[in-house]
Design brief:
Elements lengths: L4 H16 L3 H8 L6 H16 L4 H22 L2 H12 L2
Helix pairs in contact: 1-4, 2-3
Length: 95
Amino acid sequence: MVGSSTEVTDKFNTLLEQCYKGNLREFCSEFDVKNRGESFYKRVQKARHRMMNQSISQETIDEFKKYIVFMEFKLLEQECSWDEKKALMEFKSFF
């Protein structure tokens, strides 16, 4: 997995483009299971902007790593067969 804020930002932006055609608002609405809405979107938007322009806390980098795993899983779901999707859903149910 990537480590520095630049690497994390680059990976996040690449996956955002692949999964959501670069639409951050769409990603936030799908990821936000707590329905925080606009405040969650603004927080992610600010953190992403700070990551591109300056160093940030390790906690924020770790948070973006979670977003990356979410989008990687989404891509995997799109590319797998029906049986593989079934197995992924069973795996997801453990969490």
